[in-house]
Design goal:
2 copies of one chain form a homodimer.
Chain A (H helix, E strand, L loop, with lengths): L24 E5 L4 H13 L7 E5 L3 H18 L4 E5 L2 H5 L4 E4 L7 H12 L20 H17 L4 E4 L4 H11 L3 E4 L7 H7 L7 E8 L2 E9 L2 E2 L1 H10 L1 H6 L1 H4 L12 H10 L2 E3 L2 H4 L9 H8 L8 H22 L6 H4 L9 H9 L4 E8 L12 E9 L2 E4 L7 H24 L2 H9 L7 H12 L5 H6 L5
Parallel strand pairs in A: 1-2, 1-4, 2-3, 4-5, 5-6
Antiparallel strand pairs in A: 7-8, 8-9, 8-10, 11-12, 12-13
Helix pairs in contact in A: 1-2, 5-6, 6-17, 17-18, 18-19
C-alpha cells in the first residue's frame, strides 16, 4: 500500500521496479511472543495475496526478537513466500508508515502476576482476584496493559494515522474500549474464543459445513445466539445431548483426564448450567469468565463445575498451564535453534484459524470477509450503547470494518451478565483514567469473595506495594 | 375540573348552581392508611385553592374507611374547608372521572412480611432480604405491590384516562417505571425522603431560607448534588462538621438514644462514609438503601454505621418501628373515636410538607411550582436512559410535570451505585413481567450475603410456599 522502501538487513533482494509496490506494511508489536508470532507468520506466508508485504517485527526483548526474525525468514524461505521481514526494538520506527499494527504485548511477564495471585489467596481470593480487577491481565487494574495500549495508540496517531490497530492482547474488552474512546486510532479486537462453538459441533457429531452459528457479546462474554444445522434450529440437539450424553461425557477420560486445563470447558457442567440460567450457550472463555460466583467459591466448587483441574484459572489449572507454556517454549527453542529442521514439517503451511491475517487481507486487498471481531456496537446488539465495543460477526473489506446486526439478547442474560460486565469495564476504565485508588478498591469489594472492607483494602495495598507495582501505585491515588 | 355530580351519602349539602364546578376530583386509593390520609386531608383543607373539590376515599377495609371518612368530614368542618368527601370500597367507582388518583396501598399488611423476614434470617439474611427483592415492599419480588399498581393504572386507562396517578406506595422506583412503561396512565412518584437535607441544614446551624439544595437520583437513592449557603458552596461546612463535630454528635444523646429508628441516620457514620466514597452526600432513605453491603453484614456492622438501633431496617430498628406504628395507630384511634376532641388541635391546619396536594394544586389550578418528583428522565440526569424514572426537581403546572436538567453525577457514583440500582429495578421488573422464578433467584444470589446457590434457592422456595404467597408462587414459574 506504500511505495517499497529499501530495507537494511532484509533477507530479500530488492525486487524489480515492476514489483516495487508494497501490498501492506504490518508491524507486530510484541513479536517476541513466540507462539503467537509463529501463527501470524505462517498465515502471512500462506495468504499469497499478501505476498509483497513488509512485516516489521518489534520487541524490546532483542534475543527473542532475533529468534523470531530468524524463524520468520526461514519459514518464508521454506514456503517461498515473497515477504520482507524487518526487526527492530524501536517502537516508533516499527510504527512509521505501517498499515496494520498487531499488538500481542504482555507487559512485565508472568512472575509478578504469580506473586500477586499468592497474595490474593492469603486474603481468601482463590486463584487470585481474577479478571475482576484484571490481575491475570498483568497487574492490578490491568494498569500496565492499559497504559501500554494507550501509549501505542497515541504513537500511532502520529506515526501511522491511517493504520489499523489489531488488538489481540488482553484485556481486549477494556483495551479496545479505551483506545476507541481516548484516541483517533482505528482499533479492532481479535480473539479466537468464539471458535469454541466448533467443540459443540464436534461433540454432537455434526459436520462444521452443515452448521450456521451466530456468536456475539463482549470479548470473553460471547453466546451462541443462533445454532442451525442444515437450516434448522440445532439447539434441540444440544438439549438431547445434555439429557442423554452429558453425564457420560463428564465421566469420560476426555473430561476426567484433560491434557490441557481448558479441555472440556466448553461442555462442562458450568457451561450447561449457564445455558440453563441464561437460555443461550456460553462460548469459549465465556464459560470461565462469565460464570456466576458460586461456580468459583473454592477449589471444590471449581472441580464440580469445570472438571478435575478446576478449570483454566484454578490453582491446578493455572500451574498446569504455566508448565505447558514452559514446555512448549522449550520445544520451540530446540526446533528453532536446529538449522537443519524443517519448520513447515512442524507447522504445515495452512491457515491457523486466527483472524489477524484474514483482516489484513480483507482490508489491504479489498476482499470482503465476514469475521468475528470486536468493534464499536453502533446498534449491532440492541440495548448496548453505540460506543461500547462488542464482539460480533463483522464485514471487513477495503472500506474498513462494520459490525453486523445481531438484535436482542435474552433479557435475563442482558440484565444478569452483559450489562454488569459492561459496568465492570466502565469501572476499570474510570479507575484507570482518573488514577482512582478508591475506584479500584470499590471494584474489589464487588467481588462476592470479599468479606470486609478492611481486608479488601489491605490486599489492595499489599499488592500495590510490590516493587513491580511502583508505577501503578503512584498512578492510583486516594482522591476525594 | 368536571361538572359537579350529586353524591350519595355526602356530608355536604348540594352547593348552589353558581358553585357547581368541581375544582378537582381526587381519589385516594388505600385511604385506610390512617397516618398518610390524615396528612393528605389536612393539606387539602389548608389549600384553599382546592376548595370545591371532591375527595373520594377508597379502601377495601370498610372499618378503616369509615373511620377516615369520619375524621375527614370532622377536619373539614373544623377548618370550614369546602370539600366533599365520598367513601367507597369499589375501586372502579372511585376512579370513575377522577382527575388525580393518589395510591398509598400496602397490599397484605405487615404480618406476612414479618414472617418472611424471620425465614430469611434463618438463612443468614440479617433483617430479611431487604429491598434487594423488595420484601419490605410487601412480598418477594414486590409482587403484590407491582401487581396492584399495574391493575390500578390499567383500570385508570378506562375510568379516567386523563387523570394523574400520584404513586406514593413503595416501591416507588420499580412501581413508577412499571406503570410508565406498561400503561398509558400518566404517573408521578412522590416521596419525602429528599427533605433529609434539612436535617443537615439544621445540624450545621444554618437557616433553611439561606440554603439552595439540589437533590437528585432515583427514589431512595438521591444525592445532594448542589448545596449553597447564601449563594456559596456549603460543602466545606459539611467537611468542617465532619472534621470537628461528627465524633461528638455520634456520642451525643440524639444519636445514642434516638426516639425513632431513623433518627440520626442522615448524619450517621454510614452517610459520612458514603459521602467519602462517592463525593456527594446521600439524602434521606438513601443512607439505608444505597449504603454498601459491608455496612449491613450483621447487627454489629449495622450498629457501627447507623447507631445503637442499627438503623431502620435492623432487627432492633424495625421492631421499634412496628411498636411505634402500633402506638401511633392506637393514639389516633382514641382521638378519632372521641367526638368532643379537637382534630385541629392535634393536627394544626398547616401544610404537612408532603407534596401530593401541592402537585394537585399546581396542575388543577395551573399554579407553577417546583417540586421534587419521580418522572421519566428525558435527559434530566446525563447517562440515564430517557425512559427510566428519576427523582429530580420538576416543574408542575397546568400543562403537566417536567423534570429539570440536573446534568452529570460523579462518575464513581454513577458506575458504583446508580447504574447498579437501575439494573436491580430492571431485573425485578423482568422477573415480574415474565413471571420468571429464575430471575428472582438470580437477584437474591446477587446479594453479598448469599453463600450458596442451594441455600438461596431453598429460601426462595420456603418463602414462596407460605400460604399468603400462593398467587406469587403461581406467577413466578421456572422457565427455560
Amino acid at each position: 500500500m506504500k511505495p517499497w522502501r529499501g530495507i537494511q538487513g532484509s533477507a530479500e533482494a530488492r525486487p524489480d521496479e515492476e514489483e516495487a509496490l508494497e501490498v501492506a506494511r504490518v508491524a507486530i508489536v510484541g513479536a517476541g511472543s513466540v507462539a503467537f508470532s509463529v501463527s501470524l507468520i505462517r498465515d502471512l506466508c500462506v495468504e499469497k495475496d499478501l505476498w509483497g508485504s513488509t512485516v516489521v517485527l518489534m520487541d524490546i526483548d532483542k534475543e527473542r526478537l532475533g529468534l523470531v526474525h530468524g524463524l520468520a525468514t526461514r519459514y518464508a524461505r521454506e514456503t517461498k513466500a515473497d515477504l520482507r521481514f524487518e526487526a527492530t526494538a524501536d517502537r516508533k520506527e516499527a510504527l512509521e508508515g505501517s498499515d496494520f499494527v498487531v499488538c500481542s504485548v504482555k507487559v512485565g511477564g508472568y512472575e509478578g502476576m504469580e506473586k500477586e495471585r499468592k497474595i490474593a489467596e492469603r486474603y481468601g481470593y482463590q486463584g487470585g482476584i481474577g479478571d475482576r480487577v484484571s490481575d491475570y491481565y498483568g497487574g492490578i487494574g490491568a494498569y500496565y496493559q492499559l497504559k501500554f495500549f494507550l501509549d501505542l495508540a497515541r504513537d500511532m496517531e502520529d506515526a501511522c494515522p491511517d493504520a489499523w490497530l489489531i488488538e489481540t492482547a488482553n484485556p481486549v474488552f477494556e483495551g479496545t474500549n479505551l483506545v476507541a474512546r481516548e484516541t483517533k486510532t482505528k482499533v479492532v479486537g481479535v480473539c479466537h474464543g468464539h471458535l469454541g462453538y466448533k467443540e459443540i459441533v464436534k461433540t454432537l457429531g455434526l459436520e462444521e459445513k452443515d452448521v450456521d452459528a451466530l456468536v456475539a457479546g463482549f470479548n470473553h462474554c460471547v453466546w451462541l445466539l443462533r445454532f442451525l444445522h442444515r437450516g434448522e434450529d440445532a439447539y434441540p440437539l444440544i438439549d438431547r445431548w445434555i439429557r442423554e450424553k452429558a453425564e457420560k461425557y463428564w465421566r469420560s477420560g476426555k473430561f476426567q483426564k484433560p491434557r490441557f486445563p481448558w479441555e472440556g470447558e466448553q461442555l462442562s457442567p458450568s457451561a450447561v448450567d449457564m445455558y440453563r440460567m441464561y437460555g443461550v450457550f456460553p462460548i469459549g472463555d465465556t464459560v470461565r469468565s462469565a460464570s456466576p460466583w458460586w461456580h468459583h467459591t473454592d477449589l471444590r466448587a471449581k472441580k464440580k463445575w469445570f472438571g478435575p483441574m478446576g478449570g483454566f484459572d484454578s490453582k491446578i489449572g493455572w500451574s498446569r498451564y504455566l508448565e505447558l507454556r514452559e514446555k512448549g517454549l522449550k520445544k520451540r527453542m530446540r526446533l528453532f535453534s536446529d538449522p537443519t529442521a524443517s519448520l513447515t514439517k512442524e507447522y504445515p503451511p495452512v491457515m491457523s484459524g486466527e483472524q489477524h491475517v484474514p483482516i489484513i487481507d480483507a482490508i489491504a486487498n479489498d476482499k470482503e470477509r465476514t469475521l468475528e471481531l470486536n468493534v464499536p456496537n453502533m446498534g449491532s446488539i440492541s440495548g448496548i450503547p453505540d460506543g461500547v465495543v462488542v464482539e460480533v460477526p463483522a464485514v471487513a473489506n477495503g472500506k474498513g470494518i462494520r459490525g453486523m446486526p445481531v438484535g436482542e439478547l435474552p433479557k435475563r442474560l442482558m440484565l444478569g451478565v452483559m450489562v454488569p460486565r459492561m459496568l465492570r469495564m466502565e469501572r476499570i476504565l474510570q479507575a484507570f483514567l482518573d488514577g482512582d485508588r478508591k475506584g479500584l478498591l470499590l471494584e474489589i469489594l464487588e467481588d462476592h469473595r470479599s468479606t470486609s472492607f478492611e481486608r479488601a483494602k489491605a490486599m489492595l495495598e499489599e499488592i500495590l506495594a510490590q516493587p513491580w507495582n511502583e508505577e501503578a501505585s503512584k498512578h492510583y491515588k486516594w482522591a476525594r
